[in-house]
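Progress against Task 2.4 (sequence-to-structure conversion) is shown through the following example record, which the project officer requested during the mid-term review.
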Amino acid sequence: MNKFKRVLILSVITLMVLSTMSVFAGGDKEAADEGKVKVVLYVNGTLGDKSFFDSAARGIDQAVKELGIVGKIVEGGFDSSRWEPDILQLAEGDWDIVIAGTWQLQEFVEKIAPNHPEKKFFTYDTTVNYANANLGNVYSILYSQNEASFLTGALAAMITTSDLPLANTDKVIGFLGGMDIPVINDFKVGFEEGAAYIDPEVKVLVMYAGSFSDSAKGKELTLAMFDQGADITFNVAGQVGLGGIDAAKEQNKYTLGVDSDQYMEFVETDAEKASHIVTSMMKNVDYSIFRGIEMHIAGTLKYGEAEILDIEKGGVGLADNENYQKVATAEMRAKIDEIAKKITSGEIKVGTAFGQ
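Structure tokens generated for the chain above:
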């Protein structure tokens, strides 16, 4: 046998062995996953916003670690033409639960879910129209962002009227919204009412970027609000809000994060930037997704309806981190705790952009 033939035979044998190992490895994985709940999260954007979508992803990661599910996260990007076919493909795949949130995906969930009654669907930060379709396999998660934004507005008003190092003499605060839509305006309503609760003379500047991805626009608008006298802004804008945080660092002003604890997101990589984030209004998407999966496994999740997660249910709140403890005075923090209790008890009724 010549050298060439020996090499060829050895190569074939090697490929056969590797192929067999791959089959067995795949079989082992399939066997290990047998019986586990399989959950896929579809993100109509990208991860890395250090806010809303990253929070959703953490919910899946937590469920993988603590509940033993098979989890996957699919980033759909910002090309809306991809979203419906992507969700349809996932619905036709080997998933027990398909999670697709935000108002931008509502119509696709309404269209696809009735054709896949054997599957379960979660949507979050929006609700499907249960009256107009057979959506008994869909669980919708809503959040009382107006309640926690009331706390955020109250804190901003206390800061702008204080003698804290970065506060000026103007009673002006700012609100940066991603888009002029009901869910963002629900934050705005709570923020404005919270500020007025502390001091009716506090002026709230409001600007919208018309996007959730243009961080440069977020920085530009936030700088404009600082130029108009604001010394603290509230960013409700996904990746756009990252620009707002950059502006606060550049102008040495205060800012308030959203959805995730954005101080904790930056403290290890940019401590100076993080120091300007007094606290964040937590929309606990991670907790809500983990909670929903946990209830699904326990058989207690009510499909075919929407659930509102408020302060009392842990759906929203303020991040109580080291920077909040450092920047906000003890009196401010005590006042925030008092207001939160009054909201929970119903003594303070917060308005909403949804007309409820």
